Amino acid sequence: MVIQIDSREKARAITKIVETFDRCGIKHPVSKLMVGDYMNYDNPRLIIDRKQNLSELCNNVCQDHERFRKELIRAQENDIKMIFLVEHGKGIERLEDVIWWENPRRWKRYKSPETGKWEEVETKAMTGETLYKILCTQERKYGCKFLFCEKKDTGKEIIRILSGDAHD
């Protein structure tokens, strides 16, 4: 198996992934991919886009919505199945678990001018329930898939998915 790694992946962020590839005897050339971050040469129609956590994914579907949507459309137009592998861990094992995600940006601490004490106020940051609905819509609309793993298992999961062991 040969897995191409997108050249925009930060070397420091993928050290453990590359170590897993090396341990498994998988060649991993680095060059720019049209979409996503990882591709098996044997099946260039299946691409994995790695996300650090749900906060990064949330940022992609909110602030970077247009860029993210264009990437999904580009994949769809080229008959590429995009799989987003989210390294979240902490109880997020499948898409339905996203409903219970607590966005770290949801609460903001500030010092009350009246009391001088620290207080927490709710912000308008996205809830897990809203993010879940958006991700379900994207799966339906663009044919992509959102999978989840622990950071320590990312390399192993990339190999499993790209070798065809992850079916709908």
UniProtKB/TrEMBL annotation:
Gene3D superfamilies in the record: 3.40.50.10130
Pfam families reported in the protein's UniProt record: ERCC4
Any one of the GO BP annotations: DNA metabolic process
Lineage of producing organism: Bacteria, Bacillati, Bacillota, Clostridia, Lachnospirales
Entry GO MF terms: DNA binding; nuclease activity
Organism: Dorea formicigenerans
Database matches in InterPro entries: ERCC4_domain, Restrct_endonuc-II-like
Annotated protein name in UniProt: ERCC4 domain-containing protein
Domain called ERCC4: residue spans: 5-155
